[in-house]
Model the fold of this input.
Amino acid sequence: MAKTKETAKEGGFGDNIRMDGLATKLMGIAGGIGVIGLGASFGLGYTSDKSQFMHSYLTAYAWILSIGLGALWWVVLQHLVNAKWSTVVRRVGELLASTMPVLALLSLPIVIPALMGDSTLYIWADSQKMHADHLLHKKAAFLNRDFFVVRLVIYFVFWGVLSRYLLSKSVEQDKTGAPEIRSKLQGLCAPSMILLALTLTFAAIDFVMTLEPKWYSTIFGVYYFAGAVVSFHSFFALALMWLQKNGRLAKSVTSEHYHDIGKMMFAFTAFWAYIAFSQFMLIWYANIPEETEWYHVRAHGAWGTVSYLMVAVNFLIPFFGLLSRHVKRNRMALGFWAVWILVVHWLDMFWLVKPHMHTEHLPFSILDVTCTVGMLGLFIAAAAFASQKVNLVPIKDPRLEKSLAFENF
Amino acid sequence: MSHHDDDLHGLLAEYETPSALVAACKKVRDAGYAKWDTFTPFPIHGIEKAMGIRMTGLPWIVLAAALVGLASAVGLQWWTNAVDYKFISSGKPMWSIPANVPVYFELTVLFSAFAALFGMLILNNLPQPSHPLDHLQAFGRVTDDRFFLYIEKGDAKFDLAETQRLLDGTHPVTVDAVNEDRRTSDQLPKPLVLTAAVIAVLALVPFAFIAKARATKTDKPKIHAMGDMDWQIKFQAQQPNPLFQDGMAMRAPEPGTVALDEHPDDEHLTAGKVDGQFVRTFPAGFKVDEATMARGKERYEIFCAPCHGMSGNGDGPVAQRAMTLAEGTWVPPTALGQDYLRQMAVGQLYDVVTNGVRNMPAYGSQLAVDDRWAVVLYLRALQKAKAAPVGELTDAERAALK
Amino acid sequence: MAMAQSPFDLAPQGENAFARITHNVARVAEVSKPPRGWYIAFGIALSLLSVFGVSIGWLFWQGIGIFGNMNPVFWAMPIVNFVFWVGIGHAGTLISAILYLLRQNWRTAINRFAEAMTIFAVICAGIFPGLHVGRPWLPYWMFPLPNQMSMWPQFRSPLEWDVFAVGTYFTVSTLFWYMGMIPDFGTFRDRSTTKVRKMVYGLLAMGWRGSSRQWHRYERAYLILAALATPLVLSVHSVVSFDFATAQLPGWHATIFPPYFVAGAIFGGFAMVVTLAVPARQFFGLKRIITVGHLELMAKIILATGMMVGYAYSMEFFIAWYGGNDYEMFTFFNRALGPYAWSYWCMIFCNVVSPQVFWSKKMRTNPWVILGVGVLVNIGMWFERFVIVITSLSRDFLPSSWGYYKPTFWDFSLLAGSFGLFFTLFLLFCRYLPMVAMAEVKAFHPSAHGHGDEHH
Done:
């Protein structure tokens, strides 16, 4: 257990709930790693293979974006269902969701080339190629550079404003203690959830599905969502463990909260498998050429090996690993599975993106590492930046008492 | 309450609230009793700890059942579809794992659910038809609004006075002595046994009928449960039909109808004739090459060899069998190497394959046009092989013959 | 009975909260005469049930020619009714299992009869595939039996998965329902005044006496069953959706079908729960147990799942366009503007538009508005299946084979009759079984905590 000696009292709260110097330190280290990682990526990418850089970058971006969107979805959900168990950890979720501006900036190396007509990633960025293809030219009304940018602006403005607003209202309650903020946010989160569902779906389609513009699957948004939720909860568990290790929230967050987060990791591991299986099985069974093509590439050669591996590492192994309640309540064990899930979820993104680059072999590269580490660094730095002046617990939320005393059955 | 010591089964304390009961539990637990229990109308949160109840092993039973269920589903689908009764369906492999996953899942859940319910009942020693507590009027409220703590006399630490004192110290409503149950018969009630027996016998009746049906034979025709499925009101092929002028149910194609592989303009190809004369050349566009020869050989060996023999000597297995049986009406198949056949126009050979001759049936409906020509080509090759001039042999072949 | 007119509106009796709960629930099954409303409802249900019996009899006598099924609509109302009823059957186990895992304690007010509803709905559903094949003496072909033909079922067929999914679902739901009732049967047994009641309820209770050592295993088993039933609910309607989605027919083949069907089933199931709950609490005086607060929560779930269904409708439309497949595009165009447009817009109105009234607090706390929307959603969900099955089949790839399907009288009489079966079973359940999970309601009552021993 973490040490609990230093107790900064904030509003009579008997636990250390301020980041103080830790935020600056974290910003420095994570931000530094982020800048170095991305800098190295740009350097390597500029001097070597552009296609490798673009695909590695998109893989890493799809991964980090899913964590951020998972966080935003989680916070909206907690307000929407008026959840009580999560109040004590909700602020950390809000901070992770408030990274949206950085995620928007990180999308630029994908958006700018597309805007300039570079079709390395997206063939639709080249309008000539689009019009030359009988099937694709029908889709040009949706798949074109201008509309792509318009959509992205809508997504990021909505996500940014929503996450910012949820955090600021929650922080405002820390000061005023106004209980009506709860019901106000609950009302706001109902329509927000609908918009979030639509923007998340279309973001997944835009960034990943349109890599193969002829392929389509109605469930694709749900697939990306399932991965986002499971990886967010894993990241969330690790973030809480790190905070507790550094003496923050040491007393407030208990095994009960980890147990619930672990349940979500478990449930959404199964949910991801359900969605992945549904998508695969239906396409495999109907065997319609324009759909099967996508899986055909992923079912043969090196990609076939990755696909079989994913059945094990993304579903079977973590499913049985997280089955027991003892695992969910044990920080070491849960931390292990959290790291595991983040890695295999990255593999999932790799599996979605990279066959577009090479259908024969697996284009692993040092760029995969540098891009991922770089984005992770900047993501953490952004969350740390937001955490500087706020409490780590919404201390005047009327549900806090229940959350602190919460026990699983 | 007076009682003989022999009759005593245990002491029962009654409480008004769950919290009073939980407090009492802690005292009894700390006093070191083992054979005791509490009885409540609903599960009380936290009483496990107060009573020192250890976590049940039920989840392990369920897990084991789940694995058995999964194994059964794998085995069932593999055995039935991939081994015992194979047939192709929508081009899927015989053993199609993606298509088997739904049943894997369902049977896993089914077995686990049975294990959860029946495991719980068995571990709880249910059904339990009678218990000494049943004869206490006050205990009837255990399923309504009262909370009870019961210590059995069989407990090693049980001492009437001591235990009574312990229970009195827990603020109960009352403490009652409970006698051994000597009134309830250890036989099951007669009506119950009778009902169960009747149901069991009745349940066997359908199985008896099935067993009888499977073990006996009948010469009666099958039962037509729904006549209009077996005798549908419709005209079948070859039947008369007064609706049409020609009185036939089957309709001839419209004049000028062309089937997909028909080439009505190319008489050379489709009939082997030009202007009523059999052609002596293969049709234009017919490729004479190794692939066509191989195809012709394959078709020949399937369709012709049974009678004419593999090398065309008229000694195929069908012919041999007919000879052995000495069938009077049997016309022996022609040996194909004969001279008049070697001179015959390819068009005529094609015509024989297509329409048959003498006793030989027509193969036009079984062989496509190209295949018929390929058979003719192979036939020519056979004929040539049978009477090849020495001049056409290679040196090696000549050497081998010597 | 002092007040002949409404024996169920008696003031709650009993000296404490637990006794009051027992009394409120148990008296429904104990009074010698149920309220007049029950008789009227039961009479209607029985007449519909006899319609069902006559229709099935005529079907077996005459064969499936009495259906409106035609070329190319070979699958028609029987499959629509099957999917409709299976969908209804989802809310029960969802309320029991998923809400239990999510610690939604309010579920205790409604879980028991939602579970009963599930079982009766699945019974209704299970009848239709049997009727549809037209050979009622051959349904054993569905089961893996070594029969006289040495033939096994075809496990690569989604219809065979259905047999296992629906069969498992029915079995597990029944086990779950029965297990939940064991303690309540104990209560009924202990309150019995006649020997027959004591015997019957005693047999059903299996000697349950509320031992804490037994409660411990019981609760663990309940948790496990809930954890098993949750993915099971998802699987059942997913498998039903596979019946359509594995095909290549435009309008059927969509990868979103499994979660979309599940959301739709929950949506329709909850609609049926409120349709039953509003009158039931009125008739049997259970307003104190099934409160307006509970109804409001269900209204919110109906709104949420309605939005999910709306999401699936829009995704299908978007991908139909985005996919660039002419047939797919035509199918969706045809749904909205073709000969069956009336059914499509009926579905959209009932499923997407009508639940929108629940954005207003005033509307979602009014039981009669909730009842109205519940009925509309039931209608809409029936039409959803009608739209999927009929519009897709009636306009397939070859325009020469297009047709217009019209249900016959017997198609409708079987649908109406299945409601008769459903309501007959449901009304018998209300009369003879514990309609509310008494033990669970008590366990969540504020005075049920076992902590405060310091007060003594």
User: Anything to note?
Assistant: The CA atoms of residues 167 and 422 of chain C lie 18 Å apart. DSSP finds 16 helices and no strands in chain C.
